[in-house]
Design brief:
- Its cofactor is cob(II)alamin; [4Fe-4S] cluster.
- It catalyses: epoxyqueuosine(34) in tRNA + AH2 = queuosine(34) in tRNA + A + H2O.
- The strands form 3 sheets. The protein has a 4-stranded antiparallel sheet with strand order 1-2-7-4, sandwiched between helices. Strands 3-8 form a two-stranded parallel ribbon. A two-stranded antiparallel ribbon has the order 5-6.
- It folds into 2 domains: about 5-85 and about 100-175, NADH Oxidase (3-Layer(aba) Sandwich), CATH 3.40.109; about 190-255 and about 265-305, no CATH class.
- Helices cover about 30% and strands about 10% of the residues.
- The longest helix is centred in the middle third of the chain and has 20 residues, at about 105-125.
- The chain is built from 12 helices and 8 strands.
């Protein structure tokens, strides 16, 4: 049984690397005092659009002890998804890089459970839960507190060595660990993400108006896309990578080693006319097990028609 907090923390980080995670950091669980007023203001300004779930469980989003009883530590992890090929051609319709392969939820969650099960074997019975973008966890805030990066002007977690093309995940546990500290913000005077956004979804540094974000418009929004965005989508039909593509720190992004994230051949070969003529049958075939299934067939057709 490992009881030494330093050794136990090192062991957790070792397990994370073994499971293919890019980085792992730990922070002390507690109420996110600094984040509370920012989140409240963002919600009051309606920047979450129709994402009602962002307003639900406000207290849980800010306090991990309401997700795991007696929580003492938040273990934050990053998992690389940067592809070795970029299929976002200017002349074709585009989908976000994270959606090229299999849905990340099904790839990452079992890895978290493996780490947790090993931890239980070595430490004994503990209260814990694993999360991959599936519960009201303020992921970026915890990752920043754990020293995995800083929250950039585009609201994404940025690391000076690896950029921002990675998924975030958490394990919340009721055991004391050796805590990491935050790193400084290296955005400086750069405003490339703000300047490049075609829908002006970053009205001020560190604030993203979700209701104007192309990712929101093409995935979360279930109604018709407002006409004010006509001609501004730049051919994005599922998600958007613009604010990441222009970020200088992403020149340090390295291709992932996850076989499940490789794009299938059918997706790689899709031409503009094939997107426009997409049938439900082909949609089911091309995007089997993919995050793109979130839009459903009619949602993707809506996006293609709007981007024409």
């Amino acid at each position: 049984m490992i009881l030494d907090t330093q050794k136990l923390t090192q062991r957790i980080k070792q397990l994370a690397l073994h499971e293919g995670f890019m980085s792992c950091g730990v922070s002390k669980a507690g109420f996110l005092e600094e984040e509370a007023p920012k989140l409240e203001k963002w919600l009051n300004q309606g920047m979450h659009g129709e994402m009602a779930y962002m307003a639900n469980h406000f207290d849980k989003r800010l306090d991990p002890t309401k997700l795991v009883e007696g929580a003492k530590s938040v273990i934050s992890l990053t998992y690389n998804y940067y592809p070795d090929q970029n299929f976002a051609e200017e002349s074709n319709y585009k989908i976000a890089k994270y959606a090229y392969g299999k849905d990340y939820h099904y790839i990452i969650k079992p890895k978290l459970k493996t780490i947790l099960n090993t931890l239980i074997e070595e430490v004994g019975d503990i209260e814990a839960r694993v999360f991959v973008d599936s519960a009201p966890v303020h992921e970026r805030a915890w990752a920043a507190k754990s020293g995995l990066g800083w929250v950039g002007k585009n609201s994404l977690l940025i690391n000076p060595k690896t950029g921002s093309f990675y998924f975030l995940a958490e394990i919340i546990v009721d055991i004391e660990l050796d805590y990491d500290g935050p790193m400084r913000d290296y955005c400086g005077t750069c405003s490339k993400c703000m300047d490049a956004c075609p829908t002006d979804a970053i009205p001020e540094p560190y604030v993203v108006d979700g209701s104007k974000c192309i990712s929101y418009l093409t995935i979360e929004l279930k109604d018709q896309i407002p006409s004010e965005f006509q001609g501004k989508m730049e051919n994005w039909i599922f998600g958007c990578d613009i604010c990441q593509d222009v970020c200088p720190w992403n020149r340090f992004s390295k291709p992932h080693q996850e076989v499940n994230f490789h794009a299938n051949e059918m997706l790689q070969g899709m031409k503009k006319n094939e997107w426009e003529d997409l049938t439900e049958e082909l949609f089911q075939e091309v995007f089997k097990g993919s995050a793109v299934k979130r839009t459903k067939f009619l949602g993707l057709k809506r996006n293609v028609n709007f981007a024409k």
